[in-house]
Write a structure and sequence with these properties.
Distance between the termini: 73 Å
Structural class: mainly alpha
Number of strands: 2
Order of helices and strands: HHHHEEH
Strand content: under 5%
Protein name: Lipoprotein
Helix content: 40-55%
Length: 184
């Protein structure tokens, strides 16, 4: 019996020495390595030449939120020599824009807010969102409403510009958009 317990004790001592010996070979300062998608040569900081990311409107933005989004654009346009506009409009669009205004708009385009993602033509689900919004508006009593020709906008009033449909669209559009977005 003594021999068996002595052997077990000897095995336990060897096991402890083996574990202790293995752990002493690894320096304490070395940290465990974690897998990453960023190669070691890549810098974590963005380059100074990177263009600022355009702000994006949200469906739940208030008018005050929108005005805050367009302030950088207005500031840029003012620096280009064009006075502020209270509405935050892009000053002019289309073929009738004077060349100097077009240049200023191009210089400031990175500050102009993108539409909400649900209504952005870059979103592959934007057309579904528009269709579902039209269904919601019709369920609320809007008679003349449809998806616009661009596939993502909403057009109301029909050929006769039905004032009731236009008014109801204005009344229910935000609620329908939020309702549809909540379901997705």
């Amino acid at each position: 019996m003594f021999r068996t317990s002595a052997r077990l004790g000897l095995v336990a001592v060897i096991a402890v020495l083996g574990v202790t010996g293995c752990s002493q070979g690894k320096p304490e300062a070395e940290k465990p390595r974690v897998a990453t998608l960023i190669p070691p040569s890549a810098s974590a900081a963005p380059s100074a030449s990177a263009a600022p990311e355009r702000p994006r409107q949200r469906l739940d933005d208030t008018e005050a939120d929108y005005q805050a989004l367009v302030k950088p654009y207005q500031k840029c346009m003012k620096a280009q020599g064009f006075a502020d506009q209270k509405s935050g409009a892009s000053w002019a669009e289309g073929d009738d824009v004077p060349e100097e205004l077009r240049k200023a708009q191009d210089a400031c385009k990175n500050f102009w807010p993108l539409p909400p993602w649900e209504m952005d033509d870059a979103n592959p689900e934007a057309k579904d969102f528009a269709r579902d919004t039209v269904k919601c508006l019709k369920a609320k009593g809007v008679k003349y409403v449809e998806v616009a020709d661009d596939g993502i906008g909403i057009s109301s009033g029909g050929k006769d510009n039905d004032s009731r449909s236009i008014a109801l669209t204005g009344e229910y559009l935000d609620a329908c958009q939020r309702e549809v977005a909540a379901k997705k």
